[in-house]
């Protein structure tokens, strides 16, 4: 039988509202000693059973709720959750011309703290709760049985990702859990286009899967247009724009390594990189240079990381967004589209729109929002878990 752990009134209320996290507090400090990965029963002060949870005693989220019933964390239970996740993608996501997408979205698929992404014939598991470490073999066996992938990788999530981001691209963060090694780089398809990813090297794989739907949307908007992609990373949006017939694609990123990968992605799709521009540098500095050259664009996309540092400047979503909007609007023609995106979980839509408003006022411009989106269908979140709704993607017309 699982050990019983008493939670306070606030946690009782959150469990009853369907929230999957127990945050460390005065009650959890009194919990009996346990190890990460223990399956425990959460009870209220009178001993009433509330939920079965996975323990992670050294984390701020000390337990993650797996079920409101008593349960065993075994192959059958994991398999059932995975089957449900696979069915959701099959029934609700448009994946006919994509083989790179999220298969399990943690809390959104009833497996809190665990994600599984598909990249072609391979799967990539990421653990955001060390409670899953002990059960990783169970998860990989269930995935093998259900999906028969060529191989399953795990990519570690180091604590200080912000500092590591810049220099991590040649470092191995991925390890093979099962099956055979993937080619390096591995080629995957998204919206009918080909992209290179790495399952071993770097903190990220080279393709942010939660933008698939927005890249498809962009393709319908850029034919014959001049497109500027700020914080272009490995150029996935740039490739989508060029493939859809944009007359000029200008990609800007501070990393020469990412820019080299962007050019490779162009070549993989038989797009001539020489017909487009690839500018390595700090986005603010490059925007100043382009403004001096009197460059004008029809569509500008800015999808900055929620935090980044270059030699010249430091960018954070709170505060940085308005300056970026003001700088970008100088290069956008009247009636052009400003597309801005943020994956910063702690900035909600209302605050984000205030940043956009501040930037527009700074530049003396009008912005009319014509479209707002979030993550695609393969990144579901429970209605009882607002933290799961992190992506904000705003398309606005410059008045």
Automatic annotation (TrEMBL):
Chain ranges of the RlmI-like PUA domain: 11-68
Keyword field contains S-adenosyl-L-methionine: yes
Keywords: Methyltransferase, S-adenosyl-L-methionine, Transferase
One Pfam family this sequence matches: Methyltrans_SAM
BP GO annotations: methylation
Stored Gene3D superfamilies: PUA domain, RNA methyltransferase domain (HRMD) like, Vaccinia Virus protein VP39
Residue ranges of every copy of the S-adenosylmethionine-dependent methyltransferase domain listed in the record: 106-358
Molecular-function GO term, any one: methyltransferase activity
Classification via InterPro entries: PUA-like_sf, PUA_sf, RlmI-like_PUA, SAM-dep_methyl-trfase, SAM-dependent_MTases_sf
Name of the protein in its database record: Class I SAM-dependent rRNA methyltransferase
Species: Geomonas anaerohicana
């Amino acid at each position: 039988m699982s050990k019983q752990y008493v939670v306070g009134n606030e946690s009782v209320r959150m469990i009853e509202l369907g929230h999957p996290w127990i945050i460390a507090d005065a009650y959890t400090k009194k919990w009996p000693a346990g190890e990460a990965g223990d399956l425990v029963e959460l009870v209220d002060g009178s001993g009433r059973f509330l939920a079965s949870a996975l323990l992670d005693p050294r984390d701020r989220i000390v337990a993650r709720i797996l079920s409101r019933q008593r349960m065993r964390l075994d192959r059958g239970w994991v398999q059932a959750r995975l089957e449900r996740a696979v069915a959701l993608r099959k029934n609700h996501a448009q994946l006919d011309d994509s083989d790179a997408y999220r298969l399990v979205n943690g809390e959104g698929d009833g497996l809190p703290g665990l994600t599984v992404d598909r990249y072609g014939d391979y799967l990539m598991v990421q653990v955001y709760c060390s409670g899953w470490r002990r059960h990783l073999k169970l998860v990989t066996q269930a995935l093998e049985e259900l999906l028969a992938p060529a191989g399953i990788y795990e990519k570690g999530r180091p604590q200080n990702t912000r500092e590591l981001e810049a220099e991590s691209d040649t470092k191995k963060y991925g390890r093979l859990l099962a099956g055979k090694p993937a080619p390096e780089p591995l080629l995957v398809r998204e919206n009918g286009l080909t992209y290179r990813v790495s399952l071993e090297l770097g903190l990220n794989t080279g393709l942010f899967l939660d933008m698939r739907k927005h890249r498809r949307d962009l393709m319908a908007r850029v034919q014959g247009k001049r497109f500027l992609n700020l914080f272009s990373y490995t150029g996935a949006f740039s490739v989508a724009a060029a493939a859809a017939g944009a007359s000029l694609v200008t990609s800007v990123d501070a990393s020469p390594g990412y820019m080299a990968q962007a050019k490779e992605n162009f070549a993989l799709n038989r797009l001539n990189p020489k017909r487009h521009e690839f500018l390595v540098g700090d986005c603010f500095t490059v925007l100043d240079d382009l403004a001096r050259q009197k460059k004008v664009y029809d569509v500008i996309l800015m999808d900055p990381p929620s935090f980044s540092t270059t030699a010249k400047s430091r960018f954070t979503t709170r505060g940085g967004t308005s300056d970026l909007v003001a700088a970008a609007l100088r290069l956008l023609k009247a009636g052009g589209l400003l597309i801005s995106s943020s994956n910063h979980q702690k900035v909600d839509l209302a605050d984000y729109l205030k940043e956009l408003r501040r930037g527009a006022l700074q530049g003396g411009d009008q912005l009319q929002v014509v479209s707002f989106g979030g993550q695609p269908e393969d990144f579901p979140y429970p209605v009882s878990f607002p933290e799961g709704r992190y992506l904000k993607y705003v398309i606005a017309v410059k008045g």
